């Protein structure tokens, strides 16, 4: 029953989202988790995500899992029609998902059928392990992980975002060369999205 919408840049592929969820999205609510961007000096992309959602008539409820209580996280996830995890540092995102319990709750929501939108780090985090993203993100901002980079394990593949896109082109190529034999990498550019609907996976290009 899972419905996943895994992108590098949501605003560039947002047009495909209503078809993936199979219903009119106007008036629905998305729980937007911007936490991965907390360690980024540049985080304009979070507002771009929010604007893209609003442009489809989706109401946005922000949830920073680095600040919210476990009760608040659970309540907001329950209340939302969609879960949106935006970009930033994937290692910091993993650290906060573990500490807060949000990771476990998000997996439960996905397994129960709630549509999940990932942008960049939000897509990577569904992999079984995020070691591969280290050429793109620094793990130094998440010291409590202590080298244990096991992630949410929702997908049996690993999204590689921003392929061919500045400023991540070199890092993405390094990941492909270094980890291509160890992970089932699914490279996507900013204008591509991986959709998973009840186990059926495809890549759409805008």
TrEMBL record:
Protein name, as recorded: Type 1 glutamine amidotransferase-like domain-containing protein
Keyword Cell wall biogenesis/degradation tagged: no
Gene3D superfamilies: 3.40.50.880
Family the entry assigns: Belongs to the peptidase S51 family.
Gene Ontology biological process terms in this record: proteolysis
Record PANTHER family: ALPHA-ASPARTYL DIPEPTIDASE, PROTEASE S51 ALPHA-ASPARTYL DIPEPTIDASE
Source species taxonomy: Bacteria, Bacillati, Actinomycetota, Actinomycetes, Bifidobacteriales
MF (Gene Ontology): serine-type peptidase activity
Keyword Hydrolase listed: yes
Organism: Bifidobacterium crudilactis
Keywords on record: Glutamine amidotransferase, Hydrolase, Protease, Serine protease
Pfam families: Peptidase_S51
Record SUPFAM superfamilies: Class I glutamine amidotransferase-like
């Amino acid at each position: 029953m899972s419905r996943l919408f895994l992108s590098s840049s949501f605003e560039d592929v947002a047009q495909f989202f209503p078809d993936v969820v199979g219903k009119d999205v106007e008036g629905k609510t998305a729980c937007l988790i911007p936490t991965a961007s907390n360690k980024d000096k540049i985080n304009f992309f979070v507002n771009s995500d929010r604007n893209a959602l609003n442009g489809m008539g989706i109401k946005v409820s922000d949830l920073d899992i680095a600040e919210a209580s476990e009760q608040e996280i659970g309540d907001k996830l329950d209340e939302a029609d969609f879960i949106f995890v935006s970009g930033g540092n994937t290692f910091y995102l993993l650290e906060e998902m573990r500490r807060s319990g949000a990771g476990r709750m998000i997996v439960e929501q996905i397994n129960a059928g709630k549509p999940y939108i990932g942008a960049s780090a939000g897509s990577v985090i569904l992999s079984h392990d995020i070691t591969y993203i280290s050429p793109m993100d620094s793990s130094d901002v998440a010291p409590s992980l202590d080298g244990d980079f096991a992630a949410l394990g929702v997908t049996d593949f690993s999204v590689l975002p921003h392929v061919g896109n500045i400023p991540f082109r070199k890092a993405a190529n390094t990941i492909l060369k270094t980890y291509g034999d160890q992970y089932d990498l699914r490279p996507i550019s900013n204008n591509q999205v991986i959709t998973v609907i009840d186990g059926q996976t495809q890549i759409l290009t805008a």
